[in-house]
Every structure is written in C-alpha cells, then in structure tokens.
Amino acid sequence: MSGESLHPADEPHEQRDVHRRTLFIFAVCFAGFIAVSVAVLWFTFGQREGGFAAAQPRMQVPANGELGQRQQLAEYLASQRAFLARLAWTDASHVHAKVPIADAMLLLAAKGANRPQPGAAP
To answer: Residue 13 pLDDT more than 80?
Structure first.
C-alpha cells in the first residue's frame, strides 16, 4: 500500500492536452478558409453594379436611393389624397358610392348610423 496512491490529487497531471503543432495547423487552415471566403464573396457580390455599400465613396448619394424618391413620394401622396377626396360610384349599377371621408363623417353625424331599431321588422 505504500507505493499506491489513494487520492486522485496525488497522481501526476497531464502536461499537455493538445499539441502546439495541431493548434498551429488549425489556425493556418482557419485563416485560409476566411481568406478564401472573403475572396469568393468579393468576386460574387463586389463585382456587381453598385458593389458593397461600404465600398461606396463617402458623400455620394445614389440617384435611386431614398433621398432621390422624395418627388415620387410627393406625387404618390397627392394622387392618393385626390382619390380619397373624389366622389364617385363604386359599381356600375349605381348602388354604392364612394364619398370623401370628411363628407361621410358629416353625413353620419347628421343622419346617424343605419342600424335597425329594437323591435322593428328587418
């Protein structure tokens, strides 16, 4: 019993779990993988018209960007306001009409909702 160790802490520990050469080979392969990935992405997406957003020169706004669409947005909103303010029939039989929102609110306030009264025949 004198030569045997009774406690695990008395046993010598491993000096090294992973060899340095294995770590070095992994690091080189990983760096190569990253370099090849960046090159493939650059040639795939960076060669298109417009390229990467980060590769754009500073202080240059693209013509078709959001800032260049202000006039288009203003025209669209004006056409939508004109459509909502127009009085028109919605069907060919002239049963349903489209009334501007402000006029519809005034009519509803003056006439009241078209609800059946309690006890009235449908």
So the answer is: no
CB atoms within 10 A of CB 99: 15
Closest CA to 86 of 106, 103, 105, 109: 103
Q: Which residue has the tokens 């993988």?
A: 33
Query: Please, is 100 exposed, middle or buried when counting C-beta atoms within 10 Å of its C-beta (0-12, 13-18, 19+)?
Result: middle
Which of 33, 55, 30 has its CA nearest to residue 42? 55
- Which among 113, 94, 93, 95 has a CA at the least distance from the CA of 104? 113
Q: Which two structure tokens, joined as six digits, stand for 61?
A: 């706004």
Burial classification of residue 93, based on how many CB atoms lie within 10 Å of its CB (0-12 exposed, 13-18 middle, 19 or more buried): exposed
**Residues 49/56, Cβ–Cβ less than 8 Å:** no
- pTM for this predicted structure: 0.36
% of the chain surpassing 90 pLDDT: 17
